[in-house]
Amino acid sequence: MADRTPDTGELTYTRVFEAPRELVFRCMLEPEHLTHFWGPAGVSTPLETIRVDARPGGVFETVMVNDSDGSRYPTRAVYVEIVAPERIVWTEPDSGVTTTSTFRELGGERTELQIRQANAPAGYRSPEARAGFATSLDRFAAYLEKLGGSR
Amino acid sequence: MTVAEDRLDATFTALADPTRRAIVARLARGDATVNELAAPFDMTLPGISKHLKVLERCGLISRTRRAQFRPCHLEGEVLDTALSWIEENRRVWKERFDKLDEHLRALQRAPSRQRKGSYRAGRSARKGGGDG
Fold it and tell me: pTM score, two decimals?
Protein backbone atom coordinates (compact mmCIF):
# COMPACT_ATOMS: atom_id res chain seq x y z
CA MET A 1 0.00 0.00 0.00
CA ALA A 2 2.97 2.32 0.03
CA ASP A 3 3.25 2.20 -3.75
CA ARG A 4 2.86 5.94 -4.15
CA THR A 5 5.75 6.73 -1.85
CA PRO A 6 7.08 9.97 -3.24
CA ASP A 7 10.76 10.75 -3.12
CA THR A 8 10.05 13.27 -0.40
CA GLY A 9 8.41 10.49 1.55
CA GLU A 10 9.53 9.03 4.89
CA LEU A 11 6.87 6.37 5.54
CA THR A 12 3.84 6.94 3.36
CA TYR A 13 0.46 5.21 3.20
CA THR A 14 -2.13 6.16 0.60
CA ARG A 15 -5.73 5.13 0.01
CA VAL A 16 -8.49 6.40 -2.25
CA PHE A 17 -11.95 6.65 -0.67
CA GLU A 18 -15.28 6.91 -2.47
CA ALA A 19 -16.38 9.97 -0.57
CA PRO A 20 -16.18 13.74 -0.82
CA ARG A 21 -13.08 15.37 0.61
CA GLU A 22 -14.91 17.34 3.34
CA LEU A 23 -16.34 14.11 4.72
CA VAL A 24 -13.02 12.24 4.75
CA PHE A 25 -11.40 15.24 6.39
CA ARG A 26 -14.05 15.35 9.12
CA CYS A 27 -13.63 11.63 9.74
CA MET A 28 -9.96 12.20 10.64
CA LEU A 29 -10.79 15.06 12.99
CA GLU A 30 -14.10 14.35 14.75
CA PRO A 31 -14.30 11.86 17.68
CA GLU A 32 -17.71 10.52 16.63
CA HIS A 33 -16.11 9.40 13.35
CA LEU A 34 -12.66 8.45 14.71
CA THR A 35 -14.25 5.98 17.13
CA HIS A 36 -15.37 3.89 14.13
CA PHE A 37 -11.95 3.27 12.62
CA TRP A 38 -9.06 4.53 14.75
CA GLY A 39 -8.28 1.15 16.29
CA PRO A 40 -6.88 -1.41 13.83
CA ALA A 41 -8.54 -4.84 13.50
CA GLY A 42 -9.56 -6.28 16.88
CA VAL A 43 -9.03 -2.98 18.67
CA SER A 44 -11.71 -0.43 19.65
CA THR A 45 -11.36 3.23 20.44
CA PRO A 46 -14.29 4.15 22.72
CA LEU A 47 -15.77 7.57 22.00
CA GLU A 48 -15.29 8.77 25.59
CA THR A 49 -11.52 8.18 25.38
CA ILE A 50 -11.02 10.46 22.37
CA ARG A 51 -9.99 14.03 23.02
CA VAL A 52 -9.69 16.39 20.08
CA ASP A 53 -8.84 20.05 20.52
CA ALA A 54 -8.66 20.95 16.85
CA ARG A 55 -6.22 23.83 16.75
CA PRO A 56 -2.42 24.13 16.61
CA GLY A 57 -1.13 23.19 20.07
CA GLY A 58 -4.38 21.38 20.91
CA VAL A 59 -4.37 17.77 22.09
CA PHE A 60 -5.30 14.67 20.11
CA GLU A 61 -5.58 11.78 22.55
CA THR A 62 -7.14 8.34 22.30
CA VAL A 63 -7.15 5.07 24.19
CA MET A 64 -7.21 1.99 21.98
CA VAL A 65 -8.64 -1.07 23.75
CA ASN A 66 -7.87 -4.61 22.68
CA ASP A 67 -11.21 -6.37 22.16
CA SER A 68 -9.98 -9.77 23.30
CA ASP A 69 -8.00 -9.04 26.48
CA GLY A 70 -8.94 -5.44 27.33
CA SER A 71 -5.39 -4.11 27.25
CA ARG A 72 -5.31 -0.36 26.74
CA TYR A 73 -2.95 1.61 24.50
CA PRO A 74 -3.16 5.33 25.12
CA THR A 75 -1.91 7.59 22.34
CA ARG A 76 -0.99 11.21 22.87
CA ALA A 77 -0.38 13.78 20.18
CA VAL A 78 -0.50 17.52 19.69
CA TYR A 79 -1.83 19.20 16.57
CA VAL A 80 0.73 21.22 14.67
CA GLU A 81 -1.39 22.38 11.76
CA ILE A 82 -5.00 22.06 10.65
CA VAL A 83 -6.02 23.35 7.22
CA ALA A 84 -9.61 22.32 6.40
CA PRO A 85 -10.21 20.29 4.31
CA GLU A 86 -6.66 19.75 3.03
CA ARG A 87 -4.22 18.86 5.76
CA ILE A 88 -3.87 17.76 9.38
CA VAL A 89 -0.47 17.53 11.08
CA TRP A 90 0.14 16.18 14.56
CA THR A 91 3.21 15.19 16.49
CA GLU A 92 3.63 12.63 19.26
CA PRO A 93 5.78 14.20 21.98
CA ASP A 94 6.78 10.80 23.43
CA SER A 95 8.24 9.40 20.24
CA GLY A 96 8.86 12.46 18.09
CA VAL A 97 6.87 10.91 15.26
CA THR A 98 5.13 13.57 13.14
CA THR A 99 2.15 12.49 11.06
CA THR A 100 0.80 14.52 8.15
CA SER A 101 -2.58 13.62 6.64
CA THR A 102 -3.17 15.13 3.20
CA PHE A 103 -6.61 15.06 1.54
CA ARG A 104 -6.69 15.40 -2.23
CA GLU A 105 -9.80 15.74 -4.38
CA LEU A 106 -9.78 13.33 -7.31
CA GLY A 107 -13.11 14.29 -8.89
CA GLY A 108 -16.26 12.18 -8.94
CA GLU A 109 -16.39 12.63 -5.15
CA ARG A 110 -13.34 10.48 -4.67
CA THR A 111 -10.66 11.51 -2.21
CA GLU A 112 -7.08 10.42 -1.83
CA LEU A 113 -5.84 10.33 1.75
CA GLN A 114 -2.11 10.20 2.21
CA ILE A 115 -0.52 9.59 5.62
CA ARG A 116 3.12 10.64 5.82
CA GLN A 117 5.16 9.87 8.90
CA ALA A 118 8.51 11.32 9.81
CA ASN A 119 10.04 8.97 12.33
CA ALA A 120 13.13 10.86 13.28
CA PRO A 121 12.93 11.82 16.94
CA ALA A 122 12.56 15.55 17.52
CA GLY A 123 16.16 16.07 18.57
CA TYR A 124 17.52 14.55 15.41
CA ARG A 125 15.51 16.25 12.72
CA SER A 126 18.53 17.67 10.97
CA PRO A 127 18.33 18.48 7.25
CA GLU A 128 20.70 15.54 6.71
CA ALA A 129 18.39 13.16 8.54
CA ARG A 130 15.42 14.43 6.57
CA ALA A 131 17.26 13.97 3.29
CA GLY A 132 18.05 10.40 4.34
CA PHE A 133 14.45 9.58 5.08
CA ALA A 134 13.52 11.19 1.80
CA THR A 135 14.98 8.23 -0.05
CA SER A 136 12.19 6.13 1.40
CA LEU A 137 12.79 4.07 4.49
CA ASP A 138 9.93 1.74 3.71
CA ARG A 139 11.35 0.77 0.33
CA PHE A 140 14.60 0.04 2.10
CA ALA A 141 12.69 -2.11 4.60
CA ALA A 142 10.96 -3.99 1.79
CA TYR A 143 14.33 -4.61 0.15
CA LEU A 144 15.83 -5.99 3.33
CA GLU A 145 12.79 -8.14 3.99
CA LYS A 146 13.34 -9.70 0.58
CA LEU A 147 16.93 -10.54 1.51
CA GLY A 148 15.42 -12.18 4.62
CA GLY A 149 17.03 -15.55 5.06
CA SER A 150 20.55 -14.42 4.30
CA ARG A 151 20.75 -12.40 7.50
CA MET B 1 10.97 7.11 26.83
CA THR B 2 11.85 3.47 27.45
CA VAL B 3 15.25 1.96 26.74
CA ALA B 4 13.73 0.02 23.85
CA GLU B 5 12.29 3.21 22.36
CA ASP B 6 15.63 4.98 22.79
CA ARG B 7 17.28 2.11 20.95
CA LEU B 8 14.70 2.26 18.19
CA ASP B 9 15.17 6.02 17.85
CA ALA B 10 18.92 5.55 17.55
CA THR B 11 18.38 2.83 14.95
CA PHE B 12 16.10 5.02 12.85
CA THR B 13 18.50 7.92 13.14
CA ALA B 14 21.29 5.64 11.94
CA LEU B 15 19.14 4.42 9.06
CA ALA B 16 18.19 7.97 8.10
CA ASP B 17 21.37 8.24 6.05
CA PRO B 18 21.46 6.68 2.56
CA THR B 19 25.13 5.67 2.81
CA ARG B 20 24.48 3.87 6.07
CA ARG B 21 21.48 2.14 4.56
CA ALA B 22 23.66 0.97 1.68
CA ILE B 23 26.22 -0.34 4.17
CA VAL B 24 23.50 -2.22 6.07
CA ALA B 25 22.14 -3.65 2.81
CA ARG B 26 25.65 -4.85 1.88
CA LEU B 27 26.16 -6.43 5.31
CA ALA B 28 22.79 -8.18 5.03
CA ARG B 29 24.52 -10.33 2.39
CA GLY B 30 27.40 -11.20 4.70
CA ASP B 31 30.25 -9.80 6.83
CA ALA B 32 32.68 -7.40 5.18
CA THR B 33 35.81 -5.44 6.04
CA VAL B 34 35.97 -1.64 6.05
CA ASN B 35 37.90 -1.74 2.77
CA GLU B 36 35.26 -3.90 1.14
CA LEU B 37 32.52 -1.63 2.41
CA ALA B 38 34.30 1.50 1.18
CA ALA B 39 34.83 0.14 -2.34
CA PRO B 40 31.44 1.04 -3.89
CA PHE B 41 31.43 4.55 -2.38
CA ASP B 42 33.28 7.63 -3.41
CA MET B 43 34.42 8.05 0.15
CA THR B 44 37.60 7.96 2.20
CA LEU B 45 38.17 5.23 4.77
CA PRO B 46 37.80 7.71 7.65
CA GLY B 47 34.49 8.79 6.10
CA ILE B 48 33.24 5.21 6.03
CA SER B 49 34.56 4.62 9.54
CA LYS B 50 32.46 7.51 10.80
CA HIS B 51 29.33 5.88 9.41
CA LEU B 52 30.33 2.53 10.87
CA LYS B 53 30.71 4.12 14.30
CA VAL B 54 27.12 5.44 14.12
CA LEU B 55 25.89 1.98 13.14
CA GLU B 56 27.97 0.38 15.90
CA ARG B 57 26.70 2.79 18.56
CA CYS B 58 23.07 1.85 18.03
CA GLY B 59 23.97 -1.83 17.94
CA LEU B 60 23.11 -2.40 14.27
CA ILE B 61 26.58 -3.70 13.52
CA SER B 62 29.41 -5.20 15.53
CA ARG B 63 33.10 -5.53 14.79
CA THR B 64 35.20 -8.38 15.99
CA ARG B 65 38.29 -7.45 17.99
CA ARG B 66 40.18 -10.60 17.16
CA ALA B 67 41.23 -10.15 13.57
CA GLN B 68 43.39 -7.42 12.13
CA PHE B 69 40.78 -6.76 9.44
CA ARG B 70 37.95 -6.50 11.97
CA PRO B 71 35.13 -7.51 9.67
CA CYS B 72 31.78 -5.82 10.24
CA HIS B 73 28.79 -7.94 11.15
CA LEU B 74 25.14 -6.98 10.88
CA GLU B 75 23.15 -7.57 14.07
CA GLY B 76 19.98 -8.92 12.51
CA GLU B 77 17.97 -8.73 15.72
CA VAL B 78 18.42 -4.97 16.06
CA LEU B 79 17.53 -4.45 12.43
CA ASP B 80 14.50 -6.72 12.81
CA THR B 81 13.22 -4.56 15.67
CA ALA B 82 13.27 -1.53 13.40
CA LEU B 83 11.76 -3.45 10.50
CA SER B 84 8.97 -4.88 12.62
CA TRP B 85 8.13 -1.38 13.83
CA ILE B 86 7.74 -0.33 10.20
CA GLU B 87 5.71 -3.47 9.43
CA GLU B 88 3.44 -2.97 12.46
CA ASN B 89 2.90 0.66 11.54
CA ARG B 90 2.00 -0.28 7.99
CA ARG B 91 -0.49 -2.88 9.27
CA VAL B 92 -2.16 -0.41 11.65
CA TRP B 93 -2.72 2.15 8.88
CA LYS B 94 -3.95 -0.48 6.44
CA GLU B 95 -6.52 -1.70 8.94
CA ARG B 96 -7.54 1.84 9.84
CA PHE B 97 -8.05 2.56 6.16
CA ASP B 98 -10.16 -0.59 5.77
CA LYS B 99 -12.37 0.45 8.67
CA LEU B 100 -12.59 4.06 7.48
CA ASP B 101 -13.65 2.79 4.06
CA GLU B 102 -16.47 0.80 5.67
CA HIS B 103 -17.46 3.75 7.85
CA LEU B 104 -17.62 6.12 4.85
CA ARG B 105 -19.78 3.64 2.94
CA ALA B 106 -22.14 3.32 5.91
CA LEU B 107 -22.34 7.11 6.26
CA GLN B 108 -23.21 7.52 2.61
CA ARG B 109 -25.86 4.80 2.76
CA ALA B 110 -27.66 6.88 5.42
CA PRO B 111 -31.22 7.87 4.34
CA SER B 112 -30.43 11.54 3.74
CA ARG B 113 -27.90 10.61 1.06
CA GLN B 114 -29.61 7.59 -0.37
CA ARG B 115 -30.89 9.39 -3.47
CA LYS B 116 -27.55 10.93 -4.21
CA GLY B 117 -26.21 7.89 -5.94
CA SER B 118 -24.19 9.26 -8.83
CA TYR B 119 -20.78 9.02 -7.21
CA ARG B 120 -21.57 5.54 -6.02
CA ALA B 121 -21.92 4.21 -9.51
CA GLY B 122 -19.13 1.81 -10.31
CA ARG B 123 -18.08 1.78 -6.69
CA SER B 124 -17.92 -1.96 -6.45
CA ALA B 125 -15.64 -2.11 -9.48
CA ARG B 126 -13.13 -0.02 -7.60
CA LYS B 127 -13.53 -1.81 -4.32
CA GLY B 128 -10.32 -1.78 -2.39
CA GLY B 129 -8.71 0.32 -5.07
CA GLY B 130 -6.16 2.97 -4.41
CA ASP B 131 -3.90 1.20 -2.01
CA GLY B 132 -2.58 -1.18 -4.64
Answer: 0.67
